[in-house]
């Protein structure tokens, strides 16, 4: 079950963190991996480790997204799986946030999702097969955190986009779903500092932070043939973080 043999997968933002974890799990399941991202050195290293291909890809540029899909079609003749994972989460309190900061987050997280999904869909429709998995977040759709109102809005926006997009391709053999990570121990999360990490561990019923592979396993399921009857849905992967009514409900 969940074999991705003979499937080709593009993971945007696959050079680091959650994207790297997703790419690694898809590779273990048998998929040929294409890493799309802006960090050429890191992206090439990950692609080499997985025996895959790296493509320089800025998801905020529509032409980049179209060119990447065309190159994958040229190299492999097919694109079966898109994991739209590229995203940023710079912190900025609302009273000091600039228009440029708001636009940057939405350009990468939300418009970038639109651009790469649109480009991939055009190819997938011709083959009448596709699995699209978005990396959203619990922050925005379910929870909030000071300094991330722009990030939360973009992640909630991804889910609204997903539901309507899923309807548009439902009869084309294409599914679109999302994973919603909680706190995953990536380079970006570590940059928030040990005090923040300890606060997060205390707020999670398992008292552990997730790993990129935890998100990768959920994405792998949604990218599989077995998930053919699931579309327009989201899976929260957070160690139960959103469950407690209050801190008192978290086991000691």
From TrEMBL:
This is 3-oxoacyl-ACP reductase FabG. Its EC number is 1.1.1.100. GO terms for molecular function: 3-oxoacyl-[acyl-carrier-protein] reductase (NADPH) activity. SUPFAM superfamilies: NAD(P)-binding Rossmann-fold domains. Belongs to the short-chain dehydrogenases/reductases (SDR) family. PANTHER family: 3-OXOACYL-[ACYL-CARRIER-PROTEIN] REDUCTASE, SHORT-CHAIN DEHYDROGENASES/REDUCTASES FAMILY MEMBER. Gene3D superfamilies: NAD(P)-binding Rossmann-like Domain.
């Amino acid at each position: 079950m969940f074999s991705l043999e003979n499937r080709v997968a593009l993971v945007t933002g696959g050079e680091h963190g959650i994207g790297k974890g997703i790419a690694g799990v898809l590779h273990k399941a048998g998929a040929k991996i294409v890493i799309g991202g802006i960090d050429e050195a890191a992206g090439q290293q990950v692609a080499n480790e997985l025996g895959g291909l790296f493509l320089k890809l800025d998801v905020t540029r529509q032409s980049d997204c179209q060119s990447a899909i065309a190159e994958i079609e040229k190299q492999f003749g097919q694109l079966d799986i898109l994991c739209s994972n590229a995203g940023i989460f710079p912190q900025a309190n609302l009273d000091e946030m600039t228009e440029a900061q708001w636009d940057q987050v939405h350009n990468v997280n939300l418009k970038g999702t639109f651009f790469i999904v649109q480009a991939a869909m055009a190819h997938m429709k011709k083959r009448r097969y596709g699995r699209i998995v978005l990396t959203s977040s619990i922050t925005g759709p379910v929870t909030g955190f000071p300094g991330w109102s722009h990030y939360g809005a973009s992640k909630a926006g991804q889910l609204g986009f997903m539901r309507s997009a899923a309807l548009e391709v439902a009869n084309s053999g294409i599914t679109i779903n999302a994973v919603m990570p909680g706190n995953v121990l990536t380079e970006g999360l570590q940059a928030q500092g040990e005090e923040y990490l300890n606060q997060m561990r205390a707020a999670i019923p398992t008292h552990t932070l997730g790993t990129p592979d935890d998100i990768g396993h959920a994405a792998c399921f949604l990218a599989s043939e077995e998930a053919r009857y699931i579309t327009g849905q989201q899976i929260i992967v957070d160690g139960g973080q959103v469950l407690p009514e209050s801190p008192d409900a978290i086991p000691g």
